[in-house]
Write a structure and sequence with these properties.
- By secondary structure, the protein is mainly alpha-helical.
- Helices cover about 50% and strands about 10% of the residues.
- The protein has helices spanning about 10-25, 30-45, 85-90, 95-110, 135-145, 150-165, 190-205, and strands spanning about 5, 45, 60, 65, 75-80, 115-120, 125, 170, 170-175.
- It has a three-stranded antiparallel beta sheet, with no helix packed on it.
- Helix 1 (about 10-25) runs antiparallel to helix 2 and helix 5 runs antiparallel to helix 6 (about 150-165).
- The longest helix has 18 residues, at about 30-45.
- The chain is globular, with a radius of gyration of 17 Å.
Length: about 210
Amino acid sequence: MGQQSGVGAGLDSFYEYLLKSFIMFGEERDLQLFNEAYENLKKFNRRGRPECNSGVGETPMYVNVRMEDGKTINSWIDSLQAAFSGVQVLKGDIDEAICNHAIYYAIWRKYGALPERYNWHLKKPEVFFYPLRPELAESTYFLYQATKNPFYLRVGSEILQSIEKHSRTNCGYATLHNVVDKTHEDRMESFFLSETCKYLFLVIYYQY
């Protein structure tokens, strides 16, 4: 059994489906479990200043910790963690969602994509490929719906333009093998069409 606790790969869907299950089916036990898990995440995994958008200190971030003692276990975040802002929107924790989303948007602005893993201590990618994942586009859509701030429409447009610029090929859209040099892999994951394109369409739709 693994000892890592966080909100990224292998763990992200647990929080998402607990909350969405309550929203869809109204099972109070699901909401109770989600709230307990969310409070523990804020207690043990959250680092940085207490207030998300004010005060002094480091920008808040959810890091990976060891389950047995809550100590930081590594210094990377992964691209699937970008979806957690959308979960926070559904939870109603909008300020925290805005702050969390900003971290992944800043990484996107730097590379025109999200590396699979990013070392927040060294401030550089640790796993370089980008398989056209939907998580940042998904959170961008949820934050626009929650805030109606046109900033998130611009973020959606930037994501789309980056994908068009760096991933488009003659017969589809390629996984980026390396977000730094923008080299391609000969594959396009199914979730690019079913999720990434869907959320980008929903964001772009509101601009017209």
